[in-house]
Amino acid sequence: MTDALDRIAAALERLAPPPPPAADPLAHPAYVWREHVLTAARAFEPLPLAMLQGMDAQRDALVANLTRLSQGHAAQDVLMWGARGTGKSALVKSAVAEVQAQGGNVALIEAVTLHLDQLPELFAAIAKVPRAFAIFLDDLGFDAAGDARALRSMLEGGAEARPANARLLVTSNRRHLIPRDLAEQASAINPRDTIDDSLALADRFGLSLGFHAIDQDTYVEIARGYAEAYGLDLDPAEAINWATRRGSRSGRVAWQYVVDLAGRNCKRL
């Protein structure tokens, strides 16, 4: 009977193996918070900060804020919003790596935005760690103001607010994280209350950085910077044609062009 129970237990463990052990929060430059476990990020190799062009003001503000956080000084939660492909996510990773290179005691933790209810557990896991953490929520957005109330409490005013050694870095295509539904506002008993509720989450971020669509000259300069960093010869007309076929100009499109250029020249990036 005991042997049969042991075999059943072993079979169940194979079907649902225990979660991996948590990574040492002092040992790695970047982590991923997934399924209640802090794991080291594989191959954390962001682009050098100098390669991200067309966002000097945003870069300087974010690096300064992360530097203060790494030194244990007052720092803001950050909302980075704007057009898709403008380098918001790339800047987060590159800025953290830059502060680390300058000796800053800060690590990046990327949290899955579909499981925001797990954030209090993450906060508890890192609250007493002698290190600063930039918690990265990528491409965040809510369909209704009510969906965002739990995160609002975590940012400010709630019983389980994020700890002093952690700040949130959030990227979104929406300036207010929630669609401004004018029809809903018009039908509300008090339209002002609806508007205030939709803005309440964005107001929790002390630093809000906008990223806007770039012009053609800036796009070419971004592509040129990428190409020169990898020893590639840029053809501006070809780079512009690449963007035209995709219907947009952005840092992401510039990078995709350079990837294609490197491939055609038999080079790795």
UniProtKB/TrEMBL annotation:
Pfam family, one: DUF815
Highest taxon of source: Bacteria
Keywords, in A-Z order: ATP-binding, Nucleotide-binding
Entry keyword Nucleotide-binding: yes
GO molecular function: ATP binding
Protein name: ATP-binding protein
